[in-house]
Amino acid sequence: MRFNLIGLFLLILSQASWANVAIQHWRTSHGTRVYFVQTPSLPMVDIRVAFDGGSARDEAQFGLAALTSAMLDTGAGEWNADDIANRFDSVGAVFSTGVSEDMAWLSLRSLTEKALFDKAFGTFQAILNTPAFNEDDFQREKNRTLAGLKHREESPGALAGIAFNKALYHDHPYAHPEEGLVETVAGFEVDDLKAFYKKYYVSANAMVVIVGDLQKSRAEQIAEKLIAGLPVGEKPAQIPPVVIPTQATTQRIAFPSSQTHVLSGMPGTHRKDPDYFALYVGNHILGGGSLVSRLFDEVREKRGLAYSASSQFMPLYREGPFVMSLQTRNDQTDQAIKVMDETLNDFIKNGPTEAELVAAKKNITGGFALRTDNNAKLTDYVTMIGFYQQPLDYLDQFPAKVDAVSVADIKDAFQRRIKPEWLQTVTVGGAGSLPAAALPPSLAVGGK
Question: Which residue has the higher pLDDT, 14 or 241?
Fold first, then answer.
C-alpha cells in the first residue's frame, strides 16, 4: 500500500514545478556545507550526501570509487543486504548510491511521516556511517562488476567511449572509465575499499542536500545527525588541470559490426567557465537540439548517413568532454565524418544565424520548468549547484543567462575554445584498422 501511495505522490509531484527555487545554505557544526530547498507540496523528502570521491580519485586503481559506492548497502551496522532492503521497503523509502568522475553520493527518498521517516533515516545513517564491507559481499560484488566489465567488451559504443576519453585525457584522472577495467578491478582487495571509504567519506569532504516538505529547523537536525557519525578527515587536493591536446589524432578500431560508432571532440568546458552559456546555447544549435540541430540536419536529414548525429558539452570540475557522435554504416564512415567536420568548421567560422539563436533560446527556456518539476530533478540540480559552488540563484538566473547570449558570443566562444585541428576522433566498427582485441586489457590505444 505504501508503494502505491508514494507512487501517487510522485505522479502528482511530477506535474508541479517551482518557478523560483529558494536554496538555503549553511554549515553544520562540523563545517559541512548544507543546501536546503523547502517544497511543501507533498509529505516527502529527498536527502543526498555527496563527497569529492568520484572516479577521478581512483589513482591507479581504476574502478575503486565505483565499487566502494556499490558496496555500501550490502551491509551496515547489524544489518545485511536483505535486512537493509527490507527496512527501506517496509516504509516505502528508496535508497541509491552513485559515482561520477568528480563525485560519489548516497541518496534517500522517504515520506516525512515520523515513524516512516525515522526508520528510513536510521537505515540511511547506518549505511553512511558504519558500512560493513564484508568479505563475502565484496567477492560477490567484485565478481558481478568483473562480469559487467567483460560484457562491456562486446559493445562497440562502450569501447569507443573508453578510447575517446583516453585520447582526450591521456594520464589525467578523467581518462579512465568510472567502472574501471578488468585488470584493475581484478586486483582489488576489500581493504582497498575500506581505505578509500576512510579517506574520502569524511565530513570535511562532504556536502548535504535536502529537498522536501520540512521546516529548516528539522533540516538542520537531519544534517547534523547525518554528519555527526563521520570522522572529520580532510578535503583532498584539487584534481589537476587538464592538458588540452594540440594535435588531432584518429583511431580506427576494428569491430565485427555492421555499424561504425564515431566520436570526435576535445576537452571542452568546466562548471565555472565564463564561456559556459555561450557554448551551451551554441551547442544546442550545433548538435544538442536533437531533431532541429545542424548536425542532425546535415548528416541525417540531407544525406541519410546516420540515424542520428549529435554533440554535447559535459562540464566537470575541470574541462569535461566536448563530443560529437554518430553511428553509420561501415562503408559510409569516411563520408559521415567529413560531413560532421565540415558542419563544425562552418559553425565555428560563421556562427549561428539569428533565427537559429531565437529558436534555440525559445526551446531551452520554454522547457526549463520541466528540469525542476519534481524533487528528484531538483535534488540533482541543487547537488550540482552545491558541489561546484555555483550561485544559489543559479536556477532563477538560468533563463536570463540563456537569453543574454548573442550570435557574436557564440561565434567568439567556439572560435577560441573548439579547434578542429585539435580534435580527437575514434571509430569502432567493421571499417577499423586496429583490432578491437587491442583495447581490453590495453585500452590506451595510440592515435595515428
Answer: 241
pTM across the whole model: 0.91
Q: How many helices (H) and strands (E) does the chain have?
A: 16, 14
Which amino acid makes up residue 31? G
Question: What's the Rg (C-alpha) of the chain?
Answer: 23
pLDDT digits (tens, 9 = 90+) for 149-191: 999 999 999 999 999 999 999 999 999 999 999 999 999 999 9
Measured in residues, the chain has a length of: 448
**pLDDT tens digit sequence for 259-285:** 999 999 999 999 999 999 999 999 999
How far apart CA 436 and CA 141 sit, in angstroms, is 27
Q: What is the DSSP string of 71-129?
A: HGGGEETTEEHHHHHHHHHHTT-EEEEEE-SS-EEEEEEEE-SHHHHHHHHHHHHHHHH
157 Cβ neighbours under 8 A, 6+ residues apart: 261, 327, 428
Residue 263 contacts by C-beta under 8 Å, 6 or more apart in sequence? 160, 161, 164, 323, 324, 325, 425, 426
Take residue 114 and report the three cell numbers written for it. Answer: 515520523
Dihedral, 55, 60, 62, 67 alpha carbons, nearest 10: -80
Opening angle at CA 87, ends 84 and 93, nearest 5: 105
In sequence order, the β-bridge partners of residue 323 are 265, 312
How many whole angstroms separate alpha carbon 124 and alpha carbon 222?
Answer: 11
Place of cell 573548439: 418
Q: Which residue type occupies 385? A: I
Task: List Cβ neighbours of 319 (8 Å cut-off, separation of 6 or more).
Answer: 242, 244, 267, 268, 269, 270, 273
Residue type, 79: W
pLDDT at 11: 40
How do beta strands 424-429 and 259-267 pair?
Answer: antiparallel
Helix, strand or coil, per DSSP, at residue 359: helix
